[in-house]
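quick q for whoever's on today - can somebody do inverse folding on this one?? i tried earlier but teh output was garbage lol. tokens:
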């Protein structure tokens, strides 16, 4: 089987990369190991993305589970900070399937065993013995990427196991985050999900009666040191692109797919590397603040949050910095996370 581009993984990153390549005249294949479990696996995710984060893809009405109007932070000590933020809760599986179908790419069901260069092309070997020959390979196969393992032999900075529950209750239109020392640098989220809500956090942080357990997945954070080698590229979770402060990965999946597809169209994969180095999505301050938060106590959180009870982002930041000028960097990074982290 011979193609111009072989994309490994049909989730949000892989399906959108195929969709962005449609109309290019290139013959594209998408290799996906999941079949019956595809929908269930991709439902284990809060599904939140800002309007800016999905602006390159025209969404269908049935792919939007809920519209988001704000973000609320719940701090130890009782302070709640609510700010305006526009976005969506997406049905990841439905969106990915539609993009894949519209892309016109050939879908190959199977698990990737190995990838290697051969002359001027790449060979992707499947576990059942089949091989796919292509000029380019795009690894969009998630946290435990087979493409990354075979070609790059690297790993993201951290792998965090998250679990999610489906809970009853009015969905609302707010993304709610509870922070505290028991979450170890992460948080507990409560997001709208259709007519109900999803609640999730790091594995073991929530009681078993939270709701119906949906499952768990690993969130890879911390960009891998190399995202292009020869004609092989990594995008989305395979590249460790989720934001290390918010753990949001959909925006990075969509934008890296767009940039990778553009680089392939140009025949200049280094332009994709240049984009990643310059993009504000991957500001190292996000990782630095995550590490700082991971070491904070509930008392530290409570002290930091005392002035943060205004709906204005500016007022919250200004009053916090006036009270404690040493947290200026923290406030600026939090503002950047609201803008770029989802």
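ok took a stab at it. sequence:
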């Amino acid at each position: 089987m011979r193609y111009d581009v072989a994309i490994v993984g049909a989730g949000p990153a892989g399906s959108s990369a195929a969709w962005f390549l449609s109309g290019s005249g290139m013959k594209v294949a998408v290799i996906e190991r999941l079949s019956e479990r595809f929908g269930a696996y991709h439902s284990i995710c809060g599904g939140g993305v800002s309007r800016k984060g999905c602006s390159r893809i025209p969404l269908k009405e049935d792919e939007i589970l809920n519209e988001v109007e704000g973000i609320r932070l719940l701090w130890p000590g009782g302070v709640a900070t609510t700010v305006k933020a526009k976005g969506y809760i997406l049905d990841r599986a439905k969106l990915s399937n539609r993009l894949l179908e519209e892309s016109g790419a050939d879908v190959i069901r199977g698990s990737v065993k190995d990838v290697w260069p051969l002359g001027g092309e790449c060979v992707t070997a499947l576990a059942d013995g089949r091989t796919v020959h292509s000029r380019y390979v795009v690894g969009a196969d998630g946290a435990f990427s087979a493409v990354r393992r075979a070609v790059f032999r690297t790993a993201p900075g951290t792998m965090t196991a998250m679990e999610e529950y489906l809970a009853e209750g009015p969905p609302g239109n707010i993304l709610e985050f509870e922070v505290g020392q028991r979450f170890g640098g992460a948080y507990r989220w409560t997001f709208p999900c259709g007519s109900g809500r999803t609640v999730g956090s790091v594995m073991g942080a929530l009681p078993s009666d939270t709701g119906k357990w949906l499952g768990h997945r690993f969130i890879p954070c911390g960009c891998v040191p190399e995202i292009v080698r020869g004609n092989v590229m990594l995008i989305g979770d395979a590249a460790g692109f989720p934001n290390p402060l918010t753990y949001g990965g959909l925006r990075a999946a969509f934008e890296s797919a767009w940039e990778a597809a553009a680089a392939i169209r140009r025949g200049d994969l280094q332009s994709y590397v240049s984009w990643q180095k310059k993009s504000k999505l991957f500001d190292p301050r996000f990782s630095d603040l995550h590490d700082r938060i991971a070491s904070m106590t509930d008392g530290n959180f409570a002290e930091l949050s005392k002035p943060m009870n205004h709906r204005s982002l500016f007022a919250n930041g200004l009053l916090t910095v006036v009270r404690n000028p040493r947290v200026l960097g923290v406030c600026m990074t939090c503002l950047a996370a609201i803008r770029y982290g989802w």
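fwiw The two ends are 37 Å apart (CA to CA). also The first helix runs from residue 12 to 21. so keep that in mind when u check it
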